[in-house]
Write a structure and sequence with these properties.
170 residues, single chain, globular
Length: 170
């Protein structure tokens, strides 16, 4: 229905991903002339869920991270998926055994690709092994709704935005 995220490739001209508030995830590899829709084609992703964030990898042209949530329909499970081959195959990066709370944001470190940050309704989670495992970050950071993440380039600081209108810098 409404496009809520757009992620152009950092590595390949013409590659653009777009997501919507009604479960569409689309890819163009020719600058918008043709599009492939992945709605209903990502195993484990509820059809019609909200896809509030997509992030193209800064390391690999075919890699994308997809954040989805379905709490508006009573499903509070975390959904973050990754494709490394332009959407041909998908891996579920997190589930309720790895993180707590529905997913809101994901960020792969721009220097170290194995370092992945995840924000959920219940805090900040960090993986140092490319998503194989996650630990909740508790050192001076509360278990709050973590809405967005960014790496400040010059200082390499992690900037964290929360629902409570706070910002943290690590």
């Amino acid at each position: 229905c409404t496009i809520i995220a757009i992620a152009p490739s950092f590595k390949e001209k013409g590659v653009i991903w777009a997501s919507t508030d009604d479960g569409n995830l689309q890819l163009t590899r020719d600058g918008g002339k043709t599009w492939t829709n992945f709605r209903g084609k990502i195993p484990g992703l509820p059809v019609g869920c909200w896809i509030p964030q997509i992030r193209a990898s800064q390391h690999d042209a075919g890699e994308l991270f997809v954040v989805a949530n379905d709490y508006r329909r009573g499903d509070f499970k975390p959904y973050i998926f990754r494709s490394t081959d332009y959407g041909k195959t998908w891996t579920k990066l997190v589930d309720e055994k790895k993180v707590t709370g529905y997913a809101l944001t994901v960020l792969q470190d721009p220097i170290e690709p194995n370092l992945i940050f995840v924000g959920t309704e219940q805090g900040l989670w960090i993986s140092m092994d490319n998503g194989a495992s996650f630990q909740q970050w508790k050192s001076g950071y509360p278990a709050v709704s973590t809405y967005d993440l960014a790496i400040q380039g010059r200082e390499a600081d992690l900037a964290i935005a929360t629902f409570g209108r706070a910002i943290y810098i690590l």
